[in-house]
Design goal:
The complex is a heterodimer of chains A (about 260) and B (about 270). Chain A has about 260 residues and is mainly α. Chain A contains twelve helices and no strands. Chain A has one domain: MetI-like fold (Orthogonal Bundle), CATH 1.10.3720.10. Chain B starts with a helix and ends in a 6-residue tail after the last helix. Classes of the chains: A mainly alpha (about 260), B alpha/beta (about 270). Chains A and B meet through α1 and α11 of A and α1, α3 and β7 of B. Chain A: Part of the binding-protein-dependent transport system for molybdenum; probably responsible for the translocation of the substrate across the membrane. Chain A: Belongs to the binding-protein-dependent transport system permease family. CysTW subfamily.
Chain lengths: ~260, ~270
Amino acid sequence: MPIPLLVPALLGLAFLLLPLIALLVRAPWRSLPEQLTSAEVWEALRLSLVCATAATGLSLVVGVPLAWLLARTRFPGRGFVRALVTLPLVLPPVVGGVALLLAFGRNGVIGQWLDSWFGITLPFTTTGVVLAETFVAMPFLVISVEGTLRAADPRYEEAATTLGASRFTAFRRVTLPLIAPGIAAGAVLAWARALGEFGATITFAGNFPGRTQTMPLAVYLALQNDPAAAIALSLVLLAVSIAVLAALRDRWMTAS
Amino acid sequence: MTRSALRTGRMLQVAGASAAALLTLSACSSATGSDKGSSPGKPSGTVTVFAAASLEESFKTLGKRFEKEHPGTKVTFNFGGSDTLAASITSGAPADVFAAASTKTMATVTDQQDAAGTPATFVRNRLEIATPPGNPDRISTLKDLTKPGLKVVLCDKTVPCGAAARKALDAGGLKLTPVSYEQDVKSALTKVELKEADAAVVYQTDVRAAGDKVAGVNFPESAQAVNDYPIALLKNAPNPKAAKAFIALVRSAEGHKVLSRAGFLKP
């Protein structure tokens, strides 16, 4: 094992692991059962799970077709469109939240029509949380699915169409089963990102227990006056993250 | 060059790059260390002030004056919810001065023995209702905020403005369910400025600072929930001399002039 690689590698590993170990060491284990059985924690956890799942569902419905469009069709400005799709990946989430307010807020570019035509306002609602999370998480799914699509052999689809299947049937019956693992991995990534979403959520949807206060918001606010509760909440999120990794173990943990 | 030599060369390059990265990191930390005002006499170097979000405008003005009066100094600010700031100070954030929006959040710091000496109250602040310009919902009392269908934002109860708002509501015997508990007073005000909320309970000073972007409504219950703003030198201040000079400026007649122009009340 070459030392110049081993030393930085171990340093990097330690750097990634130490904060997590500190979380476990400093966890208020004795008061933990009490902390975790409080109604507020479960409310925040339930809301987080529901919103992250809804955001993932929404991402699947529009994200998979978007990935297909980027991977399988040619149109002018495709590279630009792809760059736009990945923009939320690099955008600070708070900026995303502000942008969402300007678009879907009560006075937003689209939001004002939603309000005056349908009486729908999105900020400060659970739907707002789902939208904020979708905005931040969907690019993960699109990128993952697009990568899988590019790696998948298009000749199967071509064969299906030459045998008389329409392009949509070929997509449904041939492409989808072919890229299912990629879609699953993308969905898990998007779900995990949605679960941890903080900036866009607090900016766009505000913070109200049971309606828009997800786990990360609860952790942040608990840290101000009750650090023990914040650590307990963090442990729950850590456990969920480990569960996600376990679900992905075939792809990453056993990567050869 | 042989293959293995090439490989070692590359490795050294990688190692060199990581060493350079580490050096840059340590250079960052030593740069802050050299800012210590170690020379006797005049204050110098950087003063780091953690201050309640409501103090932003007045403290920025005072910071500029301070830099002008003491050439060679630089005031850097960290504005935020007093509770957030207090929590970061007790967990070791390198700050010289802490100006909080309530005695309770200051107590978080003094309880941990993180303040040098006793904090001094330098101003007080009263709550006011902020509404969009022209007050479209014709809010005139605190009770009006409890009208159904009205979107009201409050500060979270851990933040001083939220604690004060709760006190005022209790004083009026009112029950109010907001649409959101914001993490500091400025984000509560922003929701009104963007017209996403119909009203917010914020400080008088915030309403004044927002100019014509919001309209203010006074309510008598606010007298029951006036916040004291304490300021303190921190025990682990990297630059105590300049910090003391900055606190002196805040508490001077000149400082009070700036603060009262922003709407703060005398202690």
